[in-house]
Amino acid sequence: MSTENKLISENLEEISQAKVMARLAGRSYLNPDDPERQKKRPPGFGKKNPVFVSVENAQAWVYFGTGKIVVACRGTEPTQFADVLADLKTIPVRHERNGMVHSGFWEEANKVYPGILKAVKAGRKNKEKVYVCGHSLGGAMAVLVAEMLCHDKIPVEELKTFGQPRVGTRAFRRHLEGCKIGSYHRYVNNNDIVPRVPPMAFGFVHGGKLMYINRFGNIRHATYWQRIKDRFRGMWMGLKKGGVDNFSDHSMVNYVANLEKWNNDMETAQPK
């Protein structure tokens, strides 16, 4: 297989997995009593009912698939004031093991973690692989939950976040890099404003591998200045359509749509 074809195959596998996890992260917003949830489970996740964990507005779902378990942390609901409060608690607190983390995210993750751990342990009878994902606040919670699972001797195969804010300091990032997490991909959609907070001036930094989605919905490697240029162009495109790009780009619907588009493009480019 040529280098180009190998790259296409590897990227297709990553994007296909990201698409499934993005859908599950999006489904975490649905009401647990919504019958649509039961009717539209993603392929491979229909045999066992998912476990819903909810503690004081912090929520997560644990899905059981064929040979895998996916933890999906719920993100920010604009109508839920508690979510907004968590996002604004930018005071760093000392992490139990290393570095400093955002106090609001740490608090939310700790609320749901006991329930997540119980569900994962109960469902991992045959050493099923564990995946963790989340959007927005849920992405930040997913990072912290993945670290806690690793600390409890449960390796995480993949961690994928969408529109995730910064979680901790450089010391915490170094600690996270030493955890048993197979891969950590952080998807950012063009002008999504959430990944730019909390400010770096407060000591917060990002971890993981950036998967940048440009203004056309394509995943590209881009330098800092290329992303700045692309954001301005994306903002201009949004204004011409009568929208505010910074907020529409944060929508989980847009993340899923862009990943599905890119997945279809990659399948078309796949060598026959």
Core attributes:
272 residues; alpha/beta; Rossmann fold; eight-stranded mixed β-sheet; two-stranded antiparallel sheet; disordered N terminus
Query: Would you count the extended β strands for me?
Result: 10
Give the tally of structural domains: 1
Pattern of helices and strands:
HHEEEHEEHEHEHEEEHHH
- Gross CATH architecture: 3-Layer(aba) Sandwich
Structural class: alpha/beta
Low-confidence stretches: 1-9
Summarize the structure in short.
The chain has 272 residues and is of the alpha/beta class. It has helices at 3-27, 35-39, 81-88, 103-123, 137-151, 170-177, 224-240, 245-248, 252-269, and strands at 51-55, 58-65, 68-73, 92-94, 100-102, 129-135, 156-162, 181-189, 209-213, 219-220.
List the helices and strands and how they pair.
Layout (H helix, E strand, L loop, with lengths): L2 H25 L7 H5 L11 E5 L2 E8 L2 E6 L7 H8 L3 E3 L5 E3 H21 L5 E7 L1 H15 L4 E7 L7 H8 L3 E9 L19 E5 L5 E2 L3 H17 L4 H4 L3 H18 L3
Parallel strand pairs: 3-6, 6-7, 7-8, 8-9
Antiparallel strand pairs: 1-2, 2-3, 4-5, 9-10
Commentary on this structure:
With 272 residues, the chain is of the alpha/beta class. The chain has one domain: Alpha/Beta hydrolase fold, catalytic domain (Rossmann fold). Helices cover 44% and strands 20% of the residues. The protein contains 9 helices and 10 strands. Strands 1-2-3-6-7-8-9-10 form an 8-stranded mixed sheet, with helices on both faces. A two-stranded antiparallel sheet has the order 4-5. Strand 4 and strand 5 form a beta hairpin. The chain is globular and about 45 Å long.
